[in-house]
Specification:
By secondary structure, the protein is of the alpha+beta class. The protein has two domains: 67 residues, no CATH class; 120 residues, no CATH class. 32% of the residues lie in helices and 26% in strands. It is built from five helices and eleven strands; from the N terminus they run αββββαβββββαββαα. The protein has a six-stranded antiparallel β-sheet with strand order 6-11-10-7-8-9, covered by helices on one side. A three-stranded antiparallel β-sheet has the order 4-3-5. A two-stranded antiparallel ribbon has the order 1-2. Helix 4 runs antiparallel to helix 5. It is globular and about 45 Å long. InterPro entries: DUF5947 (IPR045991). It holds the Pfam family DUF5947.
């Protein structure tokens, strides 16, 4: 997801909160809190979806391949060393592309910064972690947090990663983020563990 796409997602979320009820971005039906999401592969955007629309795109190969449902599984992982993945920062997420390559992203005050992961490095990480072998391209991510003495690794839906990017953008102050952003990041991971 590009910075401009992420900005549109954040802007839409702010507009929806002013309007009241959220709407399915495919058919405009009202959606409850905790609704499903689909990935628009052409635009690189995560869209809110009602139950009916989400079911249409349940399978990865549904329809014309443009939309893919974002799965709901969250698995806490262990045994991974984020340093072995070439992570230069304490907070990052890794998304497998449909072509097999892997993009690493780290949340910043300007959005998510991206870099390519060395294929051999990713292969070694996957070999040592069974759940990563089943990661769904584009719609799931490996999320790692080693910031502020944390040591967490998760297999999560991609929308969780974009929520984290929004948290960082919303609460970051100064050069190091300020105290509030780290409290909000900790709260994000506490909520993730509680689901």
């Amino acid at each position: 997801m590009t910075v401009s796409a992420l900005s549109r997602v954040i802007t839409r979320a702010a507009a929806r909160s002013r309007e009241g009820a959220e709407r399915c971005e495919l058919c405009s039906a009202a959606v409850p809190e905790g609704h499903a999401h689909v990935l628009d592969e052409r635009a690189g955007e995560v869209l809110c979806a009602c139950r009916a629309c989400a079911l249409l795109f349940e399978q990865d190969a549904a329809a014309d391949g443009r939309y893919r449902r974002v799965p709901d599984r969250r698995i806490r992982l262990s045994g991974l060393s984020p340093a072995d993945l070439g992570v230069p920062v304490g907070l990052a997420f890794f998304v497998k592309r449909p072509d097999g390559g892997v993009d690493a992203h780290y949340p910043s005050p300007l959005g998510a910064t991206r870099w390519d992961v060395d294929p051999d490095t990713w292969s070694r990480a996957v070999a040592g972690c069974e759940p990563l072998r089943t990661i769904r391209p584009s719609v799931e991510a490996l999320l790692v947090n080693t910031s502020q003495d944390a040591d967490e690794q998760w297999l999560v839906p991609i929308d969780e990663c974009y929520r984290l990017v929004a948290v960082v953008r919303r609460h970051w102050t100064g050069l190091s983020g300020g105290g509030q952003v780290w409290k909000e990041i900790e709260a994000f991971f506490d909520r993730l563990a509680g689901r």
